[in-house]
Design brief:
The chain is an alpha+beta fold. The radius of gyration is 29 Å and the shape is globular.
């Protein structure tokens, strides 16, 4: 793949001369004009069609697939002030089809949709609550009638039939982006579907999708980060839409939508001169642009409305806000910065990197986090299309006041103002940005994301490429001047306190009748897509023996995988033991990172790695420990030397260990306040019971009695245990030479792994109380032991029944009944031979809808629904995904490593593909009847206890409220 052969000397030589980028206007063989940038290793072409549509094309031959994005330059900042949340709701509705896609009889359906639209206008204008209820009943009645002609999820069926993955969309301040990853042979069919989708807006199944948006609104209120973000933006931007209207919208506007306003918005902003098509992958430039023009070139150019520019007055004082939630307290301090691509945004970004960076070598990293003065702190810069945010974030320790934590942060900012940061830091920051650009852009998604960002922010590709040169020009004097001029008492402070959120707005379910899905119906448009045949992509399966070159250094196996893309390298030391063998191993790894050696302080070690452009990680799981170095291949030898020096000469420090113990214990306490971690612990308890890996923790008493010297012996002697080495790069001999001096023969063996019994799941219901708007329920069942001959059936079962936008569960629970924002059933294979598989059934919804959602799910699972067309779609999609996916890079090694645990020494996808090829719906039904239907579930539920419907809960099984101490083990 030629696009990433970038000279590493540019990154390694501090004083390297910047590459010059220059836009060239060129014409292809068919007469299409495009722009390309000289010295652009990514080979991006930017076309502008006659109707104003921008088309970004780039090649990536990782796999015969194409990453697609369709960005629209509009978001919640363009919402009408009396219809906030409109752009986001429109994004949902664009998945509902058109007059050709998603309908059985458009002429009859459109009459009813007009009636529904008129009723919504009356509903919005009506002030009397009782009359509004009556109007909503009428809306529900007419919607029932209209649903007889609708075909739910037909867009999703069309797209999944192509073998697409990652089908989704998102809305933000100034963007709405639609995404798919498709097999390259399905490009024209994808264009046909997307052309149809964006040609017109049909607001079918409107009130059921509105209910899903209600659920999303309620989920946002249970999200700590969103609470802080909304408050922060409102204070930073008292006039600008950035802070004055959230993307999700207000509860009042959500309850009174206008279909007319949504149509007007679509007609105004969803026009070709306000949209782009981004395609990165296995494509031919000339053929692709011709196809895009064929399908999207017919859209009509339309003038955009003049946008009123809203400017903010400079901040001249400190603004404070307080939000409350059950989680651990934290504080965010933020300044309003300039827009994306400006010099001020770059300078603010550089300051954030000086304070905290990827190498953990910033001032906050070293002076606060490394010394464990708080539970965690950092800095960030978030530029928007207009304005931006520079933030400092800190989680205080137990007993530490916000003022004390704030002083620690401000002291680091003062060091920047005084120029008290290393002279080498700026070059290291720029070099790291270059390395991260290489890593990101070697993937189709990474490059495609950068391209749609440049479109949204109205930046040329030359400007994006040249951004790195602009960073390179920034001097220490520039940073110091900026810091002194910019960081004054002109910021916002958000105090996130632990407490009850008294600002919760519960959007109530208005009460809707489940609509008809017409699951077996197909529009002529969909039939045409399904019947259009394209040349097949042949699957390619990895031959591990040729893809991985193995050698021996002493008694250690060294595996080499060649990097065909760029000069980023990786060394991984893989130890076949973990916390099951020694549960104090992870504690040793944690302490290790806070310690230095006889030659370097811990802070100097972080700086040395960052100077080299080498990142490192120590990851410990239950059955393995992996130490990884990643960075420029030319510096890997020095990185390996430095890591070996650190591990061999690490100096135990009792005082640092005592502080580490305090941090561990405080982090555990913080975890018991976090909803996500509580739900994970509760689900684990439902799955494994009280005697599990998660609850078998190192006790407080044991932590406080461990000798730090003994703990570090675990690290110092790691080299004497069994392990294997992965080398990923271009020069096998050079990389082997880099690691050879530090490899020794095995002289120690790990302790025998502790066995954790997998308990039977027998109808128990475990509940933990938490103050939240929604409720979450996860039912988990122990199934039969892993069986390789069922992998294909499981793949299709999940696609057909349990997961994804076109699955039966999603259609029934969300699309038809609007009973949950998230609902799925997943059958998961065990990762190790002889272990049990598990079935998970998840619902996240409003507490008052949980009993209805559970009943609906139970009804669905009585027997596997028989929908032959949908089964064939799921089976075909699974085959296309396998055929067009490729295993590459370090995934080759780690895929083989995972398969060995299952007793397999070849690419098992070959067997899975063959199994799916011959799979029938009766066979899948047989699998369901023997492997899914008989299982018994344990249930985990988290939510507010007063909202529990005990009558419904008792039907699920034996109820038990469990404490945080029980589920966490401390």
């Amino acid at each position: 793949m030629k696009k990433f052969f970038i000279s590493v000397s540019l990154f390694c030589m501090i004083s390297a001369m910047a590459q010059k980028f220059e836009t060239q206007k060129l014409t292809d063989a068919q007469g299409y004009s495009y722009e390309a940038v000289k010295n652009d290793q990514a080979g991006v072409r930017v076309y502008t069609l006659k109707n104003g549509l921008k088309v970004y094309l780039a090649k990536n031959d990782d796999a015969p697939r194409i990453q697609t994005y369709i960005p629209v330059r509009t978001g919640s900042n363009n919402d009408p002030s009396d219809n906030t949340g409109l752009a986001h709701y429109l994004e949902h509705m664009v998945f509902k089809g058109t007059s050709h896609l998603g309908t059985q009889d458009w002429e009859k359906e459109k009459v009813l949709l007009k009636q529904i639209s008129d009723l919504y206008e009356q509903h919005k204008a009506e002030k009397d609550p009782e009359k509004k209820k009556e109007l909503y009943k009428k809306i529900d009645e007419v919607s029932q009638e209209a649903s007889k002609y609708a075909i739910a999820n037909e867009y999703d069926k069309a797209i999944s039939s192509l073998g697409a993955t990652g089908t989704n969309a998102h809305t933000s301040l100034d963007e709405t982006v639609y995404k798919n990853n498709i097999p390259s042979n399905e490009l024209e069919k994808w264009l046909k579907v997307e052309k149809e989708r964006f040609s017109e807006l049909v607001l079918r199944l409107f009130h059921t999708e509105l209910e899903a948006v209600y659920e999303e609104y309620n989920r946002a209120q249970d999200n700590d980060s969103r609470l802080v973000f909304y408050s922060l933006m409102q204070a930073l931007f008292p006039k600008h839409p950035n802070g004055q209207q959230t993307t999700i919208g207000t509860s009042e506007h959500l309850k009174s939508p206008s279909m007319e306003a949504i149509h007007k918005y679509f007609d105004t902003y969803y026009v070709p001169n306000n949209m782009a098509v981004v395609l990165v992958g296995d494509l031919d430039y000339d053929k692709t642009i011709k196809l895009v023009d064929q399908y999207f070139g017919a859209f009509k150019y339309k003038e955009l409305p003049m946008k009123k520019m809203v400017t903010e007055e400079p901040m001249t004082s400190i603004v404070t806000r307080t939000v409350k939630s059950p989680t651990t307290p934290r504080m965010t301090i933020a300044w309003r910065t300039d827009s994306y691509g400006t010099q001020e945004a770059r300078l603010a970004d550089v300051v954030s990197e000086i304070l905290s960076n990827r190498g953990d070598a910033g001032l906050i990293d070293l002076n606060i986090n490394q010394k464990q003065k708080t539970l965690g702190a950092g800095a960030y810069e978030s530029p928007y299309k207009m304005y931006g945010t520079f933030g400092l974030v800190v989680t205080p320790k137990e007993g530490q006041s916000f003022d004390e934590a704030k002083k620690l942060l401000m002291d680091q900012l003062d060091l920047v103002k005084k120029g008290q940061f290393p002279d080498w830091m700026l070059k290291a920051i720029v070099n790291d940005k270059k390395v991260q650009r290489m890593k990101s852009w070697e993937t189709a998604d990474g490059l495609a994301t950068e391209l749609y960002d440049s479109y949204i922010n109205v930046r040329t590709w030359e400007q994006e490429l040249d951004e790195i040169n602009q960073y390179d020009k920034i001097t220490k004097a520039d940073v110091v001047k900026f810091a002194n001029d910019f960081y004054k008492d002109n910021y916002v402070v958000i105090y996130k306190e632990k407490g009850v959120n008294d600002k919760l707005v519960r959007v109530q379910n208005p009460g809707i009748t489940p609509i008809k899905l017409n699951r077996e119906a197909q529009s002529p448009f969909l039939k045409d897509i399904l019947n259009t045949k394209v040349p097949e992509i042949k699957p390619e399966f990895i031959d591990f023996k040729t893809a991985i070159q193995t050698s021996k250094i002493k008694d250690k196996t060294v595996s080499f995988v060649k990097n065909k893309y760029n000069e980023i390298a990786q060394i991984s030391y893989v130890f076949p033991f973990g916390t099951d063998n020694d549960k104090e191993l992870s504690i040793a790894g944690t302490l290790f990172e806070y310690l230095g050696t006889d030659k370097y302080t811990p802070e100097q070690l972080k700086e040395e790695f960052y100077k080299l452009g080498i990142s490192y990680s120590l990851r410990t799981s239950n059955d393995q420990m992996i130490i990884t170095l990643s960075g420029l291949e030319s510096n890997m030898k020095k990185g390996a030397e430095l890591m070996n020096h650190w591990m061999t000469n690490v100096k135990a420090d009792k005082a640092i260990y005592a502080q580490t113990v305090k941090t561990i214990l405080e982090s555990r306490a913080a975890g018991k306040k976090d909803k996500v971690r509580i739900m994970a612990a509760l689900s684990n308890y439902a799955k494994y019971g009280k005697n599990s890996r998660m609850t078998d923790i190192v006790s407080k008493e044991r932590l406080e009695s461990i000798d730090a010297v003994e703990l570090m012996k675990k690290v110092k002697t790691l080299n004497q245990y069994p392990y294997q080495v992965l080398l990923y790069g271009q020069d096998q001999k050079g990389m082997e030479k880099a690691v050879k001096p530090f490899i020794t023969n095995t002289s120690l063996q790990p302790a025998q792994a502790k066995e954790y019994a997998e308990q039977a799941t027998q109808g128990k219901v475990y509940f933990t109380n938490y103050d939240m708007v929604q409720m979450e329920m996860s039912k988990v069942a122990k199934a039969n032991t892993v069986n390789l001959s069922n992998f294909g059936k499981i793949n299709v079962f999940n696609e057909y029944f349990g997961r994804g936008l076109s699955s039966i569960v999603f259609q029934e629970i969300r699309e038809s009944k609007s009973l949950a924002y998230t609902a799925y059933v997943s059958y998961a294979n065990a990762s190790e031979k002889g272990k049990a598989n598990y079935v998970t059934n998840y619902i996240g919804t409003q507490s008052n809808k949980l009993p209805l959602a559970v009943n609906a799910m139970n009804e669905l699972m009585v027997s596997l629904p028989q929908i032959p067309a949908q089964f064939e779609n799921a089976r075909g999609s699974a085959l296309k995904q396998i055929a067009s996916n490729r295993i590459n890079r370090t995934n080759i090694f780690f895929n083989q490593l995972a398969l060995k645990k299952l007793g397999v020494d070849y690419d098992i996808r070959k067997d899975v593909y063959a199994e799916i090829q011959g799979l029938t719906l009766p066979q899948l039904t047989g699998f369901y009847n023997t492997e899914v239907k008989p299982v018994q579930y344990n249930t985990a539920i988290i939510g507010k206890k007063e909202n529990l419907n005990m009558e419904s809960i008792n039907k699920m099984g034996e109820f038990q409220e469990v404490s945080l101490e029980e589920i966490f083990g401390y």
